[in-house]
């Protein structure tokens, strides 16, 4: 207390001596009095800043972590950072990828180019914003990819941040498009050639018939003329098939009941292939028939071809299952028609080619290689799709999916077994 009054006395004394020092004292007092308020405000401000920083860091992390594209950060040959998508693309964990050199991620022929562009970017020279390379997967296969690099500040220096987009899907689609364009071109060419060949072939056959009538039965030339007629008939069949490629898509479209279609085609097949001991099981959805809009004859041809191929694959004894099933896909009403056999299945190298025109593994007199390509053409014309696979339990399975027009409640076409997994075929159940 004595000390405090002493200090005050000195203060007052100083104030008396010099008025300016009074101002210093008052100022000092005010600063001391308001300092806690400033401290609180600075603390609040830095708290808000830290929150903002944290939110922005979390947002950045979430964007980078969940990006579908790979993102890496590199300087020279060192990978400084990689997101999970980049790691997944090359089949490594993030840690494994971050421990790799950039040059290990691309085939050697791309490294020089990447280095040059990196150096140019750092010097501020213009470089392409996107370019394509191949990325090396850890199992050794090459992945087509697009790189979009930019320079970013990193720990007091600069580094290249690169977005890596996997182009595999795009490449596959391009290849498929090219393939279907080629197929369409072949189809067009084939039907053009068929038109040209049709008349001369009719002429050859007519002349051969005339010749045959003029040659006596015991004449050895009779047999030769018979061969000409047989070969001519084979050629006519191919020509007729080729001509079907040029049919107008919606020619004669009407309501077609899939269960009736199955029954009719089975009746035809039964007559044609009486000799084979092939059982046919028909499975049709319990709660009604599937009707689609289409040309019944053309669709019958699709099913007939699938059945003939199935029978050929099976040989003399076996089982074919036909399945008709309406279903929904993204609100679209569709009907699936599946034909499965218990034959040897389709070899892996054959599977991608089965729908190609003229592709056949059968002997010359047994196959033209046009059945499935024609089937696909017909299904496309009906707005549907068709594919083949080997069933996990063995045998080949062909699926035709068509837009469903109406699903009729109640039993399917009379005479057809409608129980699920009905195993009795139609008309005896043998092909
Ligand atoms: P083709 O019957 O004249 O050979 P397709 O276009 O109908 O012509 O069939 C092409 C090829 O697809 C056949 O030669 C065969 O190799 C294969 N294939 C078709 N269906 C089956 C099946 N059910 N099982 C095994 N292979 C099949």
General description of the model:
This protein has helices at residues 2-17, 19-66, 84-89, 94-98, 108-122, 168-214, 221-244, 258-272, 296-314, 371-381; strands at 70-75, 78-82, 131-136, 142-154, 157-166, 254-257, 277-284, 289-294, 317-329, 332-341, 385-390, 396-403, 406-408. The chain is of the alpha+beta class and 431 residues long. A hairpin with a 5-residue loop joins strand 11 (385-390) and strand 12 (396-403). The longest helix is centred in the first third of the chain and has 48 residues, at 19-66. It is elongated, with a radius of gyration of 40 Å. The N and C termini lie far apart (120 Å). Mean pLDDT is 81; it is low at 1-17 and 410-431. The structure holds adenosine-5'-diphosphate (ADP).
Number of strands: 13
Name the strands of the widest sheet in spatial order. 2-1-5-4-3
Characterize the quaternary organization of these chains: single chain
Structural class: alpha+beta
Fraction in helix: 40-55%
What small molecules does the structure contain?
adenosine-5'-diphosphate
Query: What value does the average pLDDT take?
Result: 81
**Secondary-structure element order, N to C:** HHEEHHHEEEHHEHEEHEEHEEE
**Biggest pleated sheet:** 5 strands, antiparallel
Q: What is the approximate shape?
A: elongated
How large a portion of the residues is in β-strands, by DSSP E?
15-25%
Our Rg estimate from Cα atoms comes to 40 Å
Q: In terms of per-residue confidence, which ranges show pLDDT below 50 for 5 or more consecutive residues?
A: 1-17, 410-431
Terminal residue distance:
120 Å
Number of helices: 10
């Amino acid at each position: 207390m004595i000390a405090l009054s002493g200090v005050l006395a000195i203060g007052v004394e100083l104030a008396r001596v010099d008025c300016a020092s009074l101002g210093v004292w008052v100022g000092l007092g005010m600063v001391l009095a308001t300092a806690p308020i400033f401290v609180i405000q600075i603390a609040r401000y830095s708290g808000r800043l830290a929150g903002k920083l944290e939110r922005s860091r979390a947002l950045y992390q979430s964007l980078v972590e969940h990006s579908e594209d790979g993102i890496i950060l590199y300087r020279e040959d060192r990978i400084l950072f990689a997101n999970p998508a980049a790691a997944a693309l090359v089949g490594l964990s993030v840690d494994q990828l971050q421990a790799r050199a950039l040059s290990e991620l691309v085939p050697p022929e791309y490294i020089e180019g990447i280095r040059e562009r990196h150096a140019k970017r750092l010097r501020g020279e213009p470089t392409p914003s996107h370019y394509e390379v191949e990325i090396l997967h850890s199992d050794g296969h090459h992945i087509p990819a697009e790189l979009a690099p930019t320079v970013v500040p990193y720990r007091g220096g600069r580094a290249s941040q690169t977005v890596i987009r996997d182009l595999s899907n795009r490449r596959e689609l391009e290849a498929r498009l090219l393939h279907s364009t080629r197929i369409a071109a072949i189809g067009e060419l084939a039907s053009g050639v068929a038109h040209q060949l049709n008349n001369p072939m009719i002429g050859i056959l007519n002349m051969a018939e005339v010749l045959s009538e003029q040659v006596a039965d015991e004449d050895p030339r009779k047999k030769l003329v018979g061969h000409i007629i047989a070969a001519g008939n084979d050629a006519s069949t191919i020509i007729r098939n080729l001509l079907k490629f040029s049919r107008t898509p919606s020619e004669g479209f009407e309501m077609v009941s899939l269960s009736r279609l199955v029954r009719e085609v089975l009746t035809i097949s039964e007559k044609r292939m009486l000799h084979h001991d092939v059982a046919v099981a028909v499975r049709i959805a319990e709660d009604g028939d599937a009707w689609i809009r289409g040309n019944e004859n053309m669709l019958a041809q699709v099913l007939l071809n699938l059945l003939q191929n199935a029978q050929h694959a099976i040989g003399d004894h076996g089982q074919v299952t036909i399945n008709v099933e309406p279903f929904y896909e993204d609100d679209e009403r569709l009907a699936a028609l599946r034909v499965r056999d218990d034959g040897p299945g389709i070899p892996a190298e054959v599977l991608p080619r089965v729908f190609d025109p003229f592709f056949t593994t059968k002997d010359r007199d047994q196959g033209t290689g046009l059945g499935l390509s024609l089937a696909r053409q017909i299904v496309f014309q009906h707005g549907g799709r068709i594919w083949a696979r080997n069933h996990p339990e063995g045998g080949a399975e062909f699926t035709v999916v068509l837009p469903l027009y109406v699903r009729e409640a109640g039993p399917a076409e009379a005479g057809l077994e409608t129980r699920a997994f009905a195993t009795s075929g139609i008309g005896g159940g043998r092909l």
